[in-house]
Design goal:
Two copies of one chain form a homodimer. Chain A is an alpha+beta fold. Chain A has a domain of 111 residues: Sandwich (Jelly Rolls), CATH 2.60.120. Chain A contains nine helices and eight strands. In chain A, the strands form two sheets. Chain A has a four-stranded antiparallel sheet with strand order 1-8-3-6. In chain A, strand 4 and strand 5 form a beta hairpin. In chain A, helix 4 packs across helix 5 and helix 8 crosses helix 9. Chains A and B meet through loops of A and loops of B. Chain A binds a DNA duplex (30 and 30 nucleotides) through helix 9.
DNA sequence: TCTAGATCACATCATATCTGTGACATAGCT
DNA sequence: AGCTATGTCACAGATATGATGTGATCTAGA
């Protein structure tokens, strides 16, 4: 079974025809390490789904320091939702940390698909709710937890990340310095 | 004096006002190693001029082998002229081999500039002629010279290239294998 | 059949980048 | 005032990636 089908069916069951119809709205691309899929300033018209590989979405603050919003691993969705939904220029970058194989759906195709297949509306609504909860928890964690606690939480939730991406990026995600992160693991 | 002014004045003299007017049609960008300035499939609307850095324009043949059309070093112009002039999707990629600082002029601005400032028409006409001659010579060289002869010619004309870009790219430019190139230097 | 050059496999080297760690600075808490 | 958590700076060693050279073979064309 196609991994996207498996992914969607974790939330809503699909017939073969439905999946074929949905899948027809996606296109696939390969990108290599260092390539961007979203750049600051552009209006993002695609939502990506990671088949294989690893990406980061990030921006630079006024001191030129990098902050990571999200990593994208296998079976994750990634885009700049603000730009994608509001049709405004993006404030962020998304690029590949490894060679990647991605599926994407354009804004228009996603609109069409949701109106024509009500199930997908439900799918995305659910995804969106869970995404919102995750963001909220991250904010809470940033407010109330120490660096060590945030480190432990991340390590517990996504141990693979620590094997896969450079520690300085984990640090930029947790909001601590590279050196402090290194000392947290002691 | 701005390097672009120096570059243009090697062909046509300019007043301060003229250069300021010309310069107003250009924009500057920085790109880092691995970033694309042109990708296959897009209609290229910019012509780039290299302030600092190094780029390659290239494509892949049906065997997935990379072939290099042109390198871009300081004071060189680079774009996909076919796409730029004919407004058709590009068949090539151009990306940065080093961090780069570039100037670019858009198609429309170039059109405006040439109609409004006749000198620039002369400038580009001359550039274009010389570019054409260079291309023709490259074809001749590919047809009649051995790999060793092509290697020697390139080494004579652009010795800096050999210091600056990986040998496998020199090979992809000369149309020989990496290994053969390595043995040519003996 | 000789030659120029390709392809494959491998070893060595160079470079970039990642990672840990000491020394020290600083801001907020108690 | 002094403690704690964290940041910043500098440096050194570890690791990974890519660049380079070279032998062994293979092939197409003069």
């Amino acid at each position: 079974m196609h991994p996207l089908r498996k992914h969607i069916e974790e939330i809503i069951p699909l017939t073969d025809e439905e999946f074929a119809y949905i899948f027809g709205h996606f296109q696939s691309i390969k990108k290599r390490k260092h390539q961007y899929i979203v750049q600051e300033g552009e209006v993002v018209s695609k939502e990506f789904w990671v088949i294989t590989g690893c990406l980061k979405s990030y921006f630079f603050d006024h001191n030129g320091k990098e902050h990571i919003l999200q990593f994208g691993l296998e079976n994750w969705w990634i885009t700049d939702y603000e730009s994608f939904v509001k049709r405004t220029p993006s404030k962020i970058f998304i690029d590949c940390l490894e060679d990647c194989e991605l599926l994407y759906i354009t804004y228009d195709d996603r609109e069409k698909l949701t109106t024509q297949l009500h199930k997908m509306e439900r799918f995305w609504a659910k995804k969106s709710k869970y995404g919102r909860i995750a963001l909220q928890n991250r904010i809470l964690s940033l407010l109330k937890n120490s660096a060590k606690e945030r480190y432990d939480l991340l390590l517990e939730q996504y141990p693979q990340l620590f094997q896969r991406v450079p520690k300085k990026l984990i640090a930029a995600y947790l909001g601590v310095s590279r050196e402090t992160l290194s000392r947290l693991g002691e």
